[in-house]
Design brief:
Elements lengths: L1 H12 L15 H25 L2 H14 L10 E3 L10 E4 L7 E7 L6 E2 L1 H13 L4 E6 L2 E2 L1 H8 L4 E5 L1 H10 L17 H9 L6
Parallel strand pairs: 3-5, 4-6, 5-7
Antiparallel strand pairs: 1-2, 2-3
Helix pairs in contact: 2-6, 4-5
Length: about 210
């Protein structure tokens, strides 16, 4: 017991936090990061699977829910509209960024099984739809991923088209608690060494 006390005192006097392996690290940091990465991969796959169980219209509405949660349209439901299969030039939804509808963001949903890619032709068609609607902002979301050619095509466009693949979309759902709820949370605490230093420097009161 005495040796353990001496070890703790020596670490404190050497200004080395007992529960630290670095300035901003935690002794279980590597294990926690590994566990979280495994959890994130698993729940992301579950979210994508849940999307595929539902109808295509569900995915279109889900994209609007995520965009509103991110702050688009001032988070107002009446600023967003799902167009779906109305033959509106391949556009699945839109969100107004202002109350007069002068600044619009058009949405495209592409529900594909993992392993399939969104080809450049689909992205090019979406860009053409934006031209037809006289707008320069679009968000293309897929449950899979985009081909390198599609990504390069968007990077060279004068208009702004954001490509969101399945992994990114699942991350957005998790970040904004769409389709998930918090089951448990944990706090990891660290000694407030400044608190103890200030108390040790205070003058002793009358005895």
């Amino acid at each position: 017991m005495l040796s353990e006390y001496q070890r703790l005192m020596w670490q404190w006097q050497q200004d080395e936090p007992v529960l630290s392996q670095g300035e901003n690290s935690h002794p279980f940091g590597a294990e926690l990061a590994s566990a979280y990465n495994s959890y994130f991969t698993e729940i992301s796959q579950q979210l994508i699977a849940a999307i595929h169980v539902n109808e295509p219209a569900f995915f279109e509405g889900l994209i609007i829910d995520v965009m509103l949660a991110m702050g688009y349209g001032g988070r107002r439901r009446d600023m967003a509209k799902r167009l779906g299969r109305t033959g509106d030039g391949g556009v699945d939804g839109l969100i107004s960024l202002d109350f007069l509808g002068l600044d619009l963001v058009y949405l495209q949903a592409k529900r594909l099984k993992p392993g399939n890619v969104v080809p450049i032709t689909d992205v090019r068609d979406f860009a053409g739809s934006l031209d037809a609607h006289h707008t320069g902002k679009g968000i293309f979301v897929t449950t899979s991923h985009f081909s390198p050619q599609a990504v390069d095509f968007c990077a060279r466009l004068p208009r702004r088209i954001a490509l969101v693949d399945g992994q990114q979309f699942a991350e957005l759902m998790l970040r904004h608690n769409i389709g998930v709820h918090v089951q448990a949370s944990y706090q990891f605490k660290r000694i407030d060494r400044d608190y103890f230093r200030m108390r040790s420097r205070e003058p002793a009161g009358p005895r």
